[in-house]
Here is the input.
Amino acid sequence: MRQKIVAGNWKMNTTPAEGEALAKAVVAASSEVKDVTLILGVPFTHLCPVSKAIAGSQVKLAAQDCSAHDKGAYTGEVAASMIAPFGAQYVILGHSERREYHGENSAVLNEKMKQAYANGLAPIYCVGEKLEERESGKHFDVVTKQIEEVVFNLSDDQFDKLVVAYEPVWAIGTGKTATADQAQEIHAHIRKVLASKFGAKAENTPILYGGSCKPSNAAEIFSKADVDGGLIGGAALKAEDFIAIAKAF
Ligand code: PEP
Here is the structure.
């Protein structure tokens, strides 16, 4: 059976103290969640307090990005080797906001993937099309390219640890959600593309949906065969909503 995952992407929200309180509230309610891996994707500044807040619980820690470099003169960047010591097990890579505002392309993301794996971080690799790409029917091609150019460079062992998140850019933070059928259609496509390179192993890859997922729509989206959970933005900032989503399977 594939791992079910509900991962929060806090983005640039909460002070460290607020983040610590949010993590504690998630931990407190996490006993209500069974058989779902809960992950908190926090700002770099929150890795330390949140790692302490979740210690000994079932809640796992992720960073929202890492540098493409291992160390050196890269002012303002944070290396994967600086993230892992806080007990982080995951790193979100290729989020559409990074692609859009920081010009991250496949070349950069290949380097970030190498850094993540070299430091024991499992990537949550984000793919997804923009509105005009969906409207012109290019969404399958867009995600295929995002996968071929990055995921196809992984070794079999690396692929075993990969999590994919499908996040249609038009649904992120907009209140618009892909329908459950739209999500299933493209998740099945993603799995087929993964299988074309990695064979039957693709059956084990968690593929998360992201884009205005909330307690009221999670159950329908998660009911689909190839949807293995969610990457949650806005709704991850309230512990009760985040936990309600995780209970929606
Ligand atoms: C995200 O940015 O990863 C996301 C899914 O955001 P939201 O849930 O707010 O649409």
User: Anything to note?
Assistant: Residues 9, 167, 172-173, 210-213, 231-235 surround phosphoenolpyruvate (CB under 6 Å). The two ends are 14 Å apart (CA to CA).
